[in-house]
Amino acid sequence: MTFSTTELYKTLCDGPFIIAGPCVLESYELALETARIVREAADRHAVTAIFKSSFDKANRTSASSFRGPGMTTGLEWLARIREETGLPVITDIHEPAQAAPVAAVADILQIPAFLCRQTALLQAAAATGSVVNVKKGQFVAPWDMGPVVEKLHAAGNRHVMLTERGASFGYNNLVVDFRSFSIMRSLNVPVIFDATHSVQLPGGQGSCSGGDRRHVPALARAAVAAGANGVFLECHPDPDKALCDGPNSWPAGRLSDLVGDLKSIWSIDYAC
């Protein structure tokens, strides 16, 4: 399955789209099951879908937390899922050396929020020519993502997206500033709302992060109304048993209903 970077990026610019999947690759079977659910939800509501999962969660709270199968096995699984479902895939990179091998499999490289200002990492991602999605750090103002976009453009890559995932509000809490969507869209890039990480409570359970998935639909609907081109949703067949980010993950069985709600809002022709 081959996707033209230019065509894929144009599709994402035109929207609407969802990025969805389990936080981390727990097993091939679970990832494939979730990817098929994502594909069915997107087809039902006529939105573009990208499958998301990480081969390594390098920023877990505890050193003993599950991180994933690693790059070699993880990329093998993602390639098989991509072929099996026909979905483009997106996954995180944490080090410059990962950019080229990951780009050989993934259609979109994702820069984690904590690493959004890492120049060498951004430059390595840009050099692949792939679409690059940068998550806005919890510590970064939306207007300060301008230099991030400039770094990628200066490195020769115009296929850039930005993701809002909440801002730190005291300790162990995040809030969403809905001005972020219009501010970051003024940088002439598609803007995504990470609806599930925005309800995370970072480090809120001591050895791992907490979260409250009840607020995912309301925030996602508000973000689409505020101008988000796409919505990012970590989803899992059984979030309470997920090995990573379970408290803020959305149940895969309820994904289609949520996507339907979002599509209805995307369909509104606003006068302003």
From TrEMBL:
GO-annotated biological processes: keto-3-deoxy-D-manno-octulosonic acid biosynthetic process
Pathway: Carbohydrate biosynthesis; 3-deoxy-D-manno-octulosonate biosynthesis; 3-deoxy-D-manno-octulosonate from D-ribulose 5-phosphate: step 2/3; Bacterial outer membrane biogenesis; lipopolysaccharide biosynthesis
Reactions listed under catalytic activity: D-arabinose 5-phosphate + phosphoenolpyruvate + H2O = 3-deoxy-alpha-D-manno-2-octulosonate-8-phosphate + phosphate
Protein name: 2-dehydro-3-deoxyphosphooctonate aldolase
Pfam families: DAHP_synth_1
Record HAMAP family: KDO8P_synth
A single cellular component GO annotation: cytoplasm
EC number: 2.5.1.55
Family (UniProt): Belongs to the KdsA family.
